[in-house]
Amino acid sequence: MHDTNQNRRVVITGLGMVTPIGIGKEQFSARLFQGDSGIREIAAFDTSRLVSHLGAEVRDFNPLDFISAKNVRRMDRLSQLSVASARLAVEDARMVIGMENRDRVGIILGTAFGPTDLKICCTRILFEQGPSRINPSLVPNSVLNAPAGHTSLELGFRGVNTTVNHQATSGESAIVYAAMELQRGTADFILAGGADILSDFYFESLVRLRAVSPTDGGAEGARPFDVHRNGPVAGEGCGIVCLELLAHALERGAVPYCELTGWGMSSAPSNPIDWPQDDKGVILAMQKALKMACLSPPDIGTIQAAGNGGKNPDAIEAKALAAAFRTNSPGPIVSSVKGALGECFSSGGMRAAVLALSIKEGKVPSTPGLMNPIVPLNFTMGRFKEANIHHGLLNAVSHGGTNVSIIMSRVQ
Amino acid sequence: MQRERVVITGLGTVNALGKNTGDFARGLKNGICGIGPLTLFDTSRYRTHTGAEIKDLDLCEMVPPPFSRKRLSRADVMGIAAVVEALRDASLFPFPESMAEDTGIILGVGSGGKLEAESVYHDYLKTGGRRAHFSRLANLCPASSADHISAALKITGPKTTFMTACSSGATAIGFARDLIACGAASVMIAGGVEPLSRTTYATFNALQAVDPEYCKPFDRNRQGLSLGEASAFLILESLTHALKRNTRIYGEVLGYGITCDAHHMTAPDPEGSGAVRSIRAALKDADLLHAAVDYICAHSTATPANDAMEAKAILEVFGKDITRIPVSSIKSMTGHTLGASGALAAVASIIAIRDGFIPPTIHHESPDPGCDLDFVSTGARPAVLNIVLANAFAFGGNNTSLLLGRYAEKGLWHA
After folding, report:
1. ipTM passes above 0.95
2. CA of A411, closest CA in chain B: separation in Å?
3. How far is B175 from chain A, CA to nearest CA, in Å?
4. What is A7-251's CATH topology?
5. Which tens digits make up the pLDDT trace of A62-115?
6. Do the bridges between strand B103-109 and strand B159-162 make them parallel or antiparallel, or are there none, so unpaired?
7. In terms of CB atoms within 10 Å, which of A257, B137, B321, B368 comes out highest?
8. Contact A126 B260 (CB under 8 A)
């Protein structure tokens, strides 16, 4: 992706955040660097029968702030969060979408589980009342590409439109694909990121599958990279970033947050519900990204890690980070915001925004929940760290052995 | 900068016409209808009772070592079988260890392990939440099929899954092409998987989009689609890599385009603007004029709205040249295989180029004055095909068009 050709440089020019720690970039940024956590007792549904009760919910979200009353009724929560996030991102990028440019504007969105509430609703009606009782108006919303479809309808753009659905790498893969499409010249402006929601049966499944804290019966909570971690806390939200070519951004007078200079995608052999036995896949993705950006490990100032408090994933990623960055001292500042945002699976857009803000503001957010690191990396703990960052790394690590790494750099 | 050419070196499919490309090719050539009474689940309470189902999926036969046969969904079994066939076809099975790092997989999906997940949820409802096999749910995410395949082959290249309803499979092929073209991999396994499920069947029935007997693409009396199930995979390879290992080359991915209608969540834009733009984007990507196309493998689901829109879009792009470009719908034989349909159309297109025939549109009896094209409705037609356009359009207004071509050393379409 690193390309001396000015016409192929991809930059981020807008952030649209609808998250557990705030709606809109300003609130998100303020609470992010304060180290606030969005994790609370789940309010949207009853968790009393279960062993887990915590979640990172998007609170105080009023869809009518973003969508007309007439159209709100046609969308489920996932689509509402996505449309709101897209509107905020376009506004932040000061982009005007009109008849003359709508065919060159697109969206590539990631979602790991899709509209879980509606999928279950349709299945429940099917089994309890019979197939003839399914309301046809529910149907268009029950597919995973509905959020991207609604977003294009609401914002009125008709360019590239697709949805990535690969576990906890969905959002990051969407960003990579968006960058490739811009470089291929098929669009001028792409909204990219990810969205997932919390809903009752989905949450119960995560709890019964022992996929969320407390997996060991201990104290519930998200503690990324901590020796006492016992699983992630489930979250929800939507993060969308605006991507465009640098030349396009400059031409319309936009100020980029940062540039995407490299990415790498890799797999590691693993059962779909399990974790790979080693850290090779994570290392491979990071190496590919560094190679594309023409950088070496000492160039990386900060890492926005995937660590979510899970036993295996955090161990694998920490081992990979220690191996890949071991020659540097003190090494890049490592942070994970999943102690604040929870694990929403399609967190790529939200976390890309965190890294963009880190580069722009010279601050790396704290890692809420981390007290006793499992490896001696340069973690942020307690409060944010100030740093002059030229290049940052964003990691996505998923069960089933899927990895994406993205390098974001200050625009030179 | 010269982009790396991406060629197709292997094909694999399981669908209602057969459990391998040989049976599929024979079905297409003979105009066999794969649509019949559904037996996969009880349809007595549904409005319709037919579909294009894969009969007798045999686990042992279809899932050879090194694939594990444990905890596989119907989608996984179909997907693995087609990938194994495609790899064998490309002389890559058993998969060579030396290529593992340079090989990835991109999957297009619809419902993944929904059929099995429905059963888990059914038990959950019946027992008031007390007895449900949650452990069985874990493996049922659509992405699981790609994870199973990459794990067994021990490949470590790029891996992801697309879900854009009915255009997923075509988009997966496009993205895989891009990954090879930009040097992120030398070989990509790309395709789509879609099993039938009760909820899919129920939701399409709720929309009254299903024909009670069998679908009749472009016919005046068409009433809707027939749901089907399929897996279809292609082995994509950089031309350099394919030449180096001296393997047979079926064809080339010449280009693709993705657009969005932004018109309505389920109804296509009646003007066909999204389809027109996706076809033109594919032509532009391939640097081809529309007149170079020899055959159009239409999306044509046989819903009244889709077929009228698609015929209109094709007319707009191809103008009077359409009189010499046949258009057909393989969905009249395979049913609409949703997330897999774009990949299945790609496999059918390469078979058509390889075997020199145009698959027919069966059940097309009464011409519709609104869709008046050459639909190849009297049976398969022998033809020398160099360039084929395959369309895939979806709910949400997602459109993907693929351009596939016969392989020629210097690119014969520029000759």
Report:
1. yes
2. 23
3. 8
4. Peroxisomal Thiolase; Chain A, domain 1 (3.40.47)
5. 999 999 999 999 999 999 999 999 999 999 999 999 999 999 999 999 999 999
6. parallel
7. A257
8. no
